[in-house]
């Protein structure tokens, strides 16, 4: 198998950093330890001037090696060696640095130079030589932005010929940012050009958003002082406007997400811009304000600014207005590690336009590997995308929920509805600088469906003594409203719990959605991403299940495991194995195993299940040979059923924290329609994973109902 890949570009600003991002994520889904290396960088070793792509990969993918180990030479160091005629030393030094990195990673993604030297020929030459000496296949990134078809094909041919001359193997070419009308023609022509080879060809359309800088990037580039709004520097700038005219004319010319450039003494412009930002129609019109000439607001204006409830970033530079504007206009934005919106968008575009399964198999060839956390998460994502589901998030005013919703929408995983106070949600979205135009927002008591939902709840619960007015009051609660959306078919699943207790999430589900036929309880599992994915249940819901309930948990967990691609082999855990132990607790597990084996006939014929069994006998083949040599489960278990919540919850947390394991869940099971509970300490990735899982459960439920 190949242990590396070299991503090279045809010229400067080809967009290879976005391609590197997509390829890196693709590789991490197949390979557990993937590193990143740049032979030559146009940066220094000082933190203030670190290479942006190394910083991006290190931060986003949590690479643990020091910055200095992830590149060979700076451009200045490489230039000096070339000038001194020490080219061989340059190549040997790059190989040496790369070789040190191989001790820590199974696979290394290499990114070529940035074409910052005076001649493209030198860059083609050095990249080809490095790729050849590292034994790395090449993925070529071709820049087609604002180019004719002829010019694009010509630049690709020059690059391919140069690589061929160096004896490099070009595995694939990605045509980046072609004109929409030229895309298919470019792909056809290039496939004709490489016919007779196994080279893959893809085209990725231009996405304007990826080229838009943030206010923070502009501030850093201009060396600007941030006067106000330091916590909002992540706002993206779509254009800039010079305020050099009277207000009545200037305000009409403000476009979406403009950076306003104005002399520092134009207090009228400054106040007018802030007032515009307060307007419902102007909330997204101004990304930031740049004050030129080194003039800062006087104390009276400063006091006024301090009282503004919705401040935008205000910067100050020493340059005069037009020199500052020229610098802004020529600034080239990159994908920074802090820009989560761009990262999510870049990954979505890559996945949408590249056959990642074919490309990854071509890169690494087929090989049997354990399921890594990244691979498992990717497989979940791909399953969710097969048939997009509609998920309702009742905690629509919570920051983490909104950030997760943006990622899910950008990556086209699910359709999202947010519940809560609409004005508060929209203000929070604007404050966070998120893009959630495609998310539906419902304020339950103002919804056209409210009366119907309240009536339905009354019909479902009137035997419990509730009144129609009680039903209306209950339906104002977001978790009850969300569950009713799922029950009525207006949503396919619900995820809550980031600011609600488990009981507040599960209770509405039990009262409205209810359990599946044949099951009396709701339970949960965690997917534990060790060297392979294991399933732990129940670690979140039922404190002390009886034998019948424990049997249901075992069957539900096996069915859940199968839904998510884990072949279930069930171990019902206790402090003794087989017939060796006695006592109330082990007798309960023994009885539960007996009931579960009866249930298998109806719910999962052929399922392998053993109990009681100790954890070491369930997971370790050597221990299994001693304790339960005749068992088909011992030493092979993938689904672990704990006898009570105390044992299960502590075990999953101990494994998670001690071994640094990714634990995905809790995933609720046993309901007719999917509802899942979040931990109140959940992170944004936790929410994304839980929504993806809920979507897959919804798909599986619909498939089973047919």
Describe this structure in words.
By secondary structure, the chain is an alpha/beta fold. The protein is built from 27 helices and 23 strands. α5 packs across α6. The longest helix has 22 residues. About 1% of the residues have low confidence.
Q: How many domains make up the 3D coordinates? A: 4
Structural category: alpha/beta
CATH topology of the largest domain: Rossmann fold
What's the CATH C level of the largest domain? Answer: Alpha Beta
Concise synopsis of the structure shown:
The chain has 706 residues and is α/β, with parallel strands linked by helices. The chain has 27 helices and 23 strands.
Features:
about 700 residues, alpha/beta, Rossmann fold, Udp-n-acetylmuramoylalanyl-d-glutamate--2,6- Diaminopimelate Ligase, Chain: A, domain 1, 4 domains, seven-stranded parallel β-sheet, six-stranded mixed β-sheet, 27 helices, globular
């Amino acid at each position: 198998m190949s242990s590396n890949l070299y991503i090279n570009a045809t010229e400067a600003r080809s967009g290879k950093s976005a391609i590197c991002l997509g390829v890196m994520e693709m590789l991490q889904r197949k390979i557990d330890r993937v590193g990143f290396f740049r032979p030559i960088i146009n940066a220094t070793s000082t933190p203030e001037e670190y290479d942006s792509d190394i910083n991006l990969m290190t931060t986003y993918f949590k690479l643990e090696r020091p910055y200095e180990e992830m590149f060979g030479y700076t451009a200045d160091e490489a230039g000096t060696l070339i000038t001194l005629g020490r080219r061989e030393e340059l190549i040997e030094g790059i190989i040496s640095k790369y070789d040190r990195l191989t001790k820590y990673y199974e696979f290394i993604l290499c990114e070529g130079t940035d074409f910052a030297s005076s001649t493209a020929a030198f860059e083609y030459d050095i990249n080809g030589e490095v790729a050849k000496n590292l034994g790395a296949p090449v993925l070529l990134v071709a820049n087609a932005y604002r180019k004719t078809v002829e010019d694009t094909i010509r630049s690709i041919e020059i690059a391919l010929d140069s690589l061929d001359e160096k004896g490099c193997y070009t595995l694939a070419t990605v045509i980046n940012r072609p004109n929409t009308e030229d895309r298919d023609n470019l792909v056809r022509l290039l496939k004709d050009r490489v016919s007779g080879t196994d080279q893959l060809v893809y085209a990725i359309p231009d996405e304007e958003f990826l080229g838009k800088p943030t206010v923070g990037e502009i501030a850093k580039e201009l060396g600007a002082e941030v006067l106000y709004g330091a916590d909002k520097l992540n706002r993206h700038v779509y254009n800039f406007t010079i305020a050099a005219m009277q207000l009545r004319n200037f305000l009409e010319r403000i476009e979406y997400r403009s950076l306003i450039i104005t002399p520092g003494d134009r207090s009228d412009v400054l106040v007018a811009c802030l007032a515009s930002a307060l307007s419902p129609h102007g909330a997204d019109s101004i990304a930031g304000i740049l004050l030129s000439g080194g003039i800062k607001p006087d104390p009276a204006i400063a006091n006024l600014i301090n009282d503004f409830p919705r401040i935008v970033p205000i910067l100050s530079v020493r340059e005069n207005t037009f020199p500052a504007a020229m610098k802004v206009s020529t600034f080239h934005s990159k994908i920074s590690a802090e820009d989560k919106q761009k990262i999510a968008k870049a990954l979505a575009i890559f996945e949408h336009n590249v056959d990642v399964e074919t490309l990854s198999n071509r890169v690494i060839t087929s090989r049997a590997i354990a399921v890594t956390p990244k691979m498992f998460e990717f497989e979940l994502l791909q399953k969710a995308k097969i048939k997009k589901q509609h998920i309702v998030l009742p905690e629509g005013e919570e920051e983490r929920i909104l950030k997760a919703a943006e990622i899910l929408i950008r990556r086209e995983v699910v359709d999202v509805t947010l519940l809560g106070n609409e004005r508060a949600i929209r203000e929070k979205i604007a404050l966070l600088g998120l893009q959630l135009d495609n998310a539906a927002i419902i304020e339950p008591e103002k919804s056209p469906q409210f009366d119907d939902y309240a009536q339905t709840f009354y019909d479902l619960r009137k035997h419990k003594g509730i009144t129609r007015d009680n039903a209306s009051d209950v339906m104002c609660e977001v978790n009850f409203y969300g569950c009713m959306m799922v029950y009525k078919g207006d949503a396919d699943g619900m995820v809550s719990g980031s600011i609600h207790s488990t009981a507040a999430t599960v209770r509405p589900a039990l009262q409205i959605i209810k359990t599946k036929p044949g099951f009396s309880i709701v339970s949960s599992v965690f997917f534990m991403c060790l060297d392979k994915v294991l399933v732990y249940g129940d670690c979140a819901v039922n404190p002390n299940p009886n034998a019948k309930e424990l049997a249901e948990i075992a069957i539900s967990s096996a069915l859940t495991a199968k839904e998510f691609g884990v072949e279930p082999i069930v171990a019902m855990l206790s402090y003794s194995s087989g017939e060796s132990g006695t006592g109330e607790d082990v007798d309960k597990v023994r009885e539960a195993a007996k009931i579960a084996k009866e249930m298998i006939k109806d719910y999962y014929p052929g399922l392998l299940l053993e109990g009681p069994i100790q954890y070491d006998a369930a997971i370790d083949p050597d221990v299994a040979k001693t304790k339960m040599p005749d068992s088909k489960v011992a030493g092979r278990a993938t689904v672990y059923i704990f006898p009570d919540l105390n044992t299960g919850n502590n075990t999953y947390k101990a494994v998670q924290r001690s071994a640094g394991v990714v634990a995905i869940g809790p995933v609720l099971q046993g309901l007719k329609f999917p509802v899942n509970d979040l931990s109140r300490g959940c992170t944004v990735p936790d929410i994304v994973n839980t929504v993806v899982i809920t979507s897959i459960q919804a798909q599986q439920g619909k498939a089973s109902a047919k």
